Design the sequence.
């Protein structure tokens, strides 16, 4: 059996599972997304992440810094309900930031260390927001993290790759233009740009 044929069959199997998953996600999210709904969405996504055979590192290679680290699997026409495979390089990190939409991250390969924060003060003009770390969580195969739009987290990767996670957003990450990043020392708020350079996975919806 040729490599091309293997890839085509794998993409078709992955696509079928993604179609089923996204339908369940839409049903869970339809009444409104709260933490209970997010926990259920996370459980659904964890089941897909267990199929490591559908996410080989040869097909989802780490993406160089300077662009998005993501391959898109699915996104609705109105840019809602967007699912990605995240494949960042070793050592990559982000500042504390929010998403302005709900997000679920579950592990496929490696360990993604997340730090979780709460806002302790906000200036009257909103230009200064002090945040402090209140928890941490390692996203590894079989586990996941669910975030509401206002939640703040940062990601820190070691040298123990390859790293691969599934990321699901209420709105596609290329369309999140109002995310904020927060300076831990000064509280300065800056725009956290929407992602660019997202690649399409084979069989993407």
Sequence:
């Amino acid at each position: 059996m040729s490599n091309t044929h293997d890839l085509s069959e794998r993409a078709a199997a992955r696509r079928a599972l993604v179609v089923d998953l996204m339908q369940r996600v839409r049903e869970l999210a339809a009444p409104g997304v709260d933490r209970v709904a997010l926990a259920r969405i996370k459980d659904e996504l964890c089941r897909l992440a267990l199929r490591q055979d559908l996410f080989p590192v040869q097909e989802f290679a780490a993406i160089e810094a300077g662009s998005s680290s993501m391959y898109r699997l699915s996104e609705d026409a109105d840019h809602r309900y967007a699912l990605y495979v995240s494949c960042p390089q070793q050592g990559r990190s982000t500042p504390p930031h929010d998403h302005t939409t709900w997000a679920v991250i579950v592990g496929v390969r490696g360990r993604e260390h997340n730090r979780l924060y709460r806002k302790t003060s906000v200036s009257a003009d909103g230009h200064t927001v002090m945040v402090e770390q209140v928890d941490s969580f390692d996203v590894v195969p079989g586990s996941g993290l669910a975030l509401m739009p206002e939640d703040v987290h940062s990601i820190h990767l070691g040298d123990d790759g390859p790293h691969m996670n599934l990321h699901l957003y209420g709105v596609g990450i290329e369309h999140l233009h109002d995310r904020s990043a927060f300076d831990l020392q000064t509280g300065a708020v800056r725009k956290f740009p929407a992602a660019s350079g997202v690649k399409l996975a084979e069989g993407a919806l």
Q: What stands out?
A: The radius of gyration is 17 Å.
